[in-house]
Amino acid sequence: MGESGTQTIFLITSVIIVLLAFTMILLFTVFQRRKNSLLVEQEENKKRFEREIAETQIEIREETLRNISWELHDNIGQLLTLAKIQLQTASEENIADVRDTISKSLQEIRALSKLINPEAIKNIKLKDAIQLEVDRFNRLNFIESTLKIKGEEKKIDTKSSIVIFRILQEFFSNTIKHSKASTLCVEINYKKTELKIKAKDNGIGFNIDKITTKGIGLHNIKKRAELIGGNAKFETFINKGTTLTINYPYKL
Amino acid sequence: MELIYIINIFEVTAVFLAIYHYKKYASTTEKYFLHFLIYMVFTEILGFTYSKMLKPNIWIFIIYVFISFLFYFYWFYTILKKSIYKKFIVVSSFVFIAIAIYNMSTQSWMNYQISTFYTGAIISTIASVFFFSELLNSNKILSIKHSLRFWIATGLLLFNVGMIPFIAFSNDYKLYPELRNIILVVMNLILYTCYSLGFIWAKAEHKQSF
Which of A96, A252, B4, B178 is surrounded by the most beta carbons within 10 Å? Predict the structure, then answer.
């Protein structure tokens, strides 16, 4: 060996050292870069999520205001008009009817004011919020609604319940406005790993391919369900009613 | 004491850390690493005893190289997710077995059968790259420090990247035993430091089904 052998060894050793250093630096840079971009992405997703939640909350609030105005006009307003007419034709005999009408109006006002108390709304559970909606539909004779609960109630993340509630609210409002349905069935199923909500009406249905976007729209409903890690599915046929199914896996 | 025996200290340290932190990874495939590391220490002891008795001991290491690469392939097979990667591992394992058996039957057991080592080292380097590419595309990258798999794969990758050229010129290095020993010690230091860090920093992963 001698001179050239020493040189070879020197060369090979350097190659080994350079290879090792290169691999380490490469690994470090690639991982660091990827980690940073992932963090930025996560941050953006979080922001988008928060924005979407805020928007949903505003929509719920708007819908609630619309419902109040509706209820004041259609329910309490009607009762008071009736009382006025009764008073105009008042006599000893029917004054009791007037009193009944007015106390019924009072009852409705109390119910309404309880319903829209922000403190009560804030702490409400998804199940109870849906129950209130169903009760309201029955009370106002909009549609014959039922709510079935299966399984043992589980705690659901507040933000997710807001989104789920908004999806259902949109579905109900479409049912009442456009579907000409006479019954509405809601079923909440608390399964082991996921929450399954099924809402079904017996209305005229619609053609999924030809919908004009109203309210938050079908696409948006699906997008929102995905946002909270679940999914929403529509099944509908002309004159066969519409079914909305929401699956939501519980968060750990 | 020769410098080369420092390697045994690294190995034993890694084994102790692996035992001490066993609970963290007991539910994953990494649990077999403990068995593997113990087998490795056993090999070292056996090899050492044979050399003290002035008996040939290279066959012990030939078998060790064969088993260790098969073990690494198996480990990569269980942790890789894409089926094309898994297929690659299966196919190359067979290639490796064929080459190893061919070498064992045609070459002398008095020499290290280096082409066996080559094949194994190249395959496991490629497998590490596959593993990293999957890791890079998952959320786990945010907490790689706590991933035992990451540390094992890093250790293996660095070790193999350095060992391939070293083994290729191992005949030239025979003339410079000190340099050869230093390189060997450094390589093993890198490998077992990665393993040890992995065992220390590992956080129990969620139970995964394989």
Answer: B4
Beta pairing class for A144-150 and A183-190: parallel
Q: How far is A252 from chain B, CA to nearest CA, in Å? A: 13
User: Between chains, do A34 and B176 touch, taking CB under 8 Å as contact?
Assistant: no
In chain A, the domains with their CATH numbers are: 1-123 (no CATH), 126-252 (3.30.565.10)
Residue contacts between A and B (CB atoms, under 8 Å): 53
Q: Do B165 and A5 touch (CB under 8 A)?
A: no
User: Tens digit of pLDDT for each residue in A70-116?
Assistant: 888 888 898 899 999 988 887 887 888 888 889 989 988 888 887 77
Neighbours of B192 (CB within 10 A): 22
Question: A214 with A180: CB under 8 angstroms?
Answer: no
- Interface test with chain A among B166, B180, B191, by most A beta carbons within 10 Å: B166
- H/E run at residue A82: helix A77-88
DSSP B60-100: HHHHHHHHHHHHHHHHHHHH--SHHHHHHHHHHHHHHHHHH
The number of distinct structural domains making up chain B is 1
A252 touches chain B (CB under 8 A): no
Phi, psi of A199 (to 5 degrees): -120, 130
Range of the domain at B48: 3-201
Report whether pLDDT(A234) > 70.
Answer: yes
Q: Look at B190 and A19 and tell me if their CB atoms are within 8 Å.
A: no
Cβ <8 Å between B179 and A23: no
Chain A, 36-65: which have a CB under 8 Å from a chain B CB?
38-39
Kindly give the parts of chain B with pLDDT less than 70.
1, 205-210
pLDDT for residue A147 is more than 70: yes
ipTM for the predicted complex: 0.74
pLDDT at A96: 87
